[in-house]
Amino acid sequence: MIEVSPDIKFKKQLKRISNSSLNECMQCGTCSVVCSLAPDERPFPRKEMIWAGWGMKDKLIGNPDIWLCHQCGDCSTYCPRGVKPADVLSAVREISYQHYAKPKFLGKILNDPKWFPVAILIPVIIISAILIMAGTFQIPEGPVNYSKFFPHAWLNSSFSFLWFLTIGLGILGLRNFRNDMKKQDPDLKPTGSFIKNLFSIRKEIILHSNFSTCTAQKTRKIAHFLVFYGFILLLFVTTFAIYAAVTHNYPLEFKNPFKIIGNIAAIMLFVGLGIMIANRIFNKKDFGNSTYNDWLFLVSLFLLTVSGVIVEAARFINWGLAYHLYFFHLVCVWFVIIYLPYTKFGHLLFRVVAMVYAASINRKLK
Ligand code: SF4
Ligand code: SF4
């Protein structure tokens, strides 16, 4: 016997974000049949669609299957009622970023367009305050040298502090998410350590093999692959840049291998994000509903990439606007990094935790 306690507010939110007519689902099960990832036992997304129709927030929010879905869109393509289950699952993921946000207000301002000015102002104020404390909040004289504007010691220490703070707050939210997954079915006893289960899903993470089965969105895997590895390469190069700044070898020469890797990462991000943005604009039929959260993630990462390339070029040609662009680039970087657990970028963390949990209860995808 299942006790049903509908959350009408949640259901309305789900309908608004997914743009789906939830109640028209007739539970035919076609979506679960065509889903190439759904396990044979308790497949998704048919059961999620009935929970969505009933507004059963607790069942949906702490459900690992929401994250095992890779949003290929095949279920929406074949749904005879046009209910768009892929968009409904995507909307649940979006609500999860707010639900597990620590602190809560960051989840709120990152997922509601009316708070966008505040979301932008926070990194602007933090960066400006650091520059004022460093005594460098002015345009330096002479050839462009960004360290005169934002001294490396200030940049590296503040960036590292905020990065570790973000990861710490993200872990608090993910811990609650993991506890909710455990509560879903208390009879299932997870086995193995987090590291052991993470190792067992290495192929899916490294090769993105779960994206290979998409039929409606064939370019999804390559775009995701380019953005994922482009961002990891950028993080790697940024870590080296912090080290180089400490050892006084900064800025790097154009031919420096790390500079070349950084530029390759930028090209990968540019192409991957370009494909994602083009698909959302020109192929709405297969790529489904695009929400504020989708655009915030894509546009902020795209602006970070493009402004990074322009800032690099501006230094080489000593452009008069170099420092203004550098400030804009820093705002983009900090926006993406400090808001990672609260925007769609958070799927990086949530999906891995859900996949690890699924491995621990031996829930295997097809
Ligand atoms: S979402 Fe569509 S395909 Fe899935 S059960 Fe409902 S009507 Fe059938
Ligand atoms: S979007 Fe794709 S992976 Fe997700 S439930 Fe639908 S068919 Fe399955």
Describe this protein's structure.
This protein has 366 residues and is mostly helical. The protein has two domains: 8-99, Alpha-helical ferredoxin (Fumarate Reductase Iron-sulfur Protein, Chain B, domain 2), CATH 1.10.1060.10; 104-360, Up-down Bundle (Fumarate Reductase Cytochrome B subunit), CATH 1.20.950. Helix content is 66%, strand content 0%. It has 19 helices and no strands. The chain has helices spanning 8-18, 30-34, 46-53, 57-61, 65-68, 74-78, 85-99, 104-110, 116-134, 146-149, 152-184, 194-200, 202-207, 220-246, 257-282, 284-287, 292-316, 322-338, 347-360. The longest helix is centred in the middle third of the chain and has 33 residues, at 152-184. The two termini are 29 Å apart.
